[in-house]
Amino acid sequence: MYLILDLGNTNKKMAVLPAGNLRPEEFSSIQDQIVSSPKITLQLVKEFANSHPAIEACIISSVIPFPASISVWLRKRFRYLEFDHNTALPIHNRYRSPATLGKDRLAAAVAGACIYPRKPVLVVSAGTAITYDIVTSGGEYLGGAISPGMQMRFRALHTFTKQIPLLTYTEIDFLTGTDTDKSVLSGVINGMTAEMQGMIAFYRKEYPGIRIILSGGDLNYFVNRLKINIFALPNIVIYGLQQILAFNDKKPL
């Protein structure tokens, strides 16, 4: 079994998944095995790992600083891999500044390429930011785009104006806002939907036959609003990390 740790800006996730090349349909069926926490501690990692005695190898990916004691303990217990820009991958990373590339973006791209091998694939992740990441049919990760996520947009409108209130997601069925709150909701939610649809259309024109995957913490807000053929996969970064560990576990860690 593999221990997967994904330490993101908002949530820190841990999962125990089967070793080897896990198929996407298998991963989709075990989403309940992923534990999320707003903060990570050594005690929390110990308790989670000790409750799964079959763990043999682990991978940790973090876009934030985390206690060094966690990696020290994991190294002593398991075959250990800390994901960074030097980690071997099952795809070719053509990003021009790999050291500055978000680990979550790269892991999601790996997942996309594993789900749709030998096909161009675009991974759209709606979370703290909206990210768009493209992998070619030849397995080359080229990069993509980054724009503000939902909460960032709500907060920016509130912070940089004097009268706009701080709002959160509310389901809407209108285009034209008839008061300030509704105008903000329309601008943010309809605007994000239009952005994603537009970006996907651009990529479809450039890469005929491209497959689209939608993920991220705000996935459920947009999966039904995007009137296009997409594959929705929650926790795509976890799946990508599992694939990266499986790729590296074939050789000494």
Features:
253 residues, alpha/beta, five-stranded mixed β-sheet, 8 helices, globular
Summarize the structure.
By secondary structure, this protein is α/β, with parallel strands linked by helices.
Would you mind describing this structure in some detail?
The protein has 253 residues and is α/β, with parallel strands linked by helices. The protein has one domain: ATPase, nucleotide binding domain (Nucleotidyltransferase, domain 5), CATH 3.30.420. Helix content is 36%, strand content 23%. The chain contains eight helices and eleven strands. A six-stranded mixed sheet has the order 6-9-8-7-10-11, with helices on both faces. Strand 4, helix 3 (68-77) and strand 5 (79-82) form a beta-alpha-beta unit. Helix 5 crosses helix 6 (180-206). It is globular and about 60 Å long.
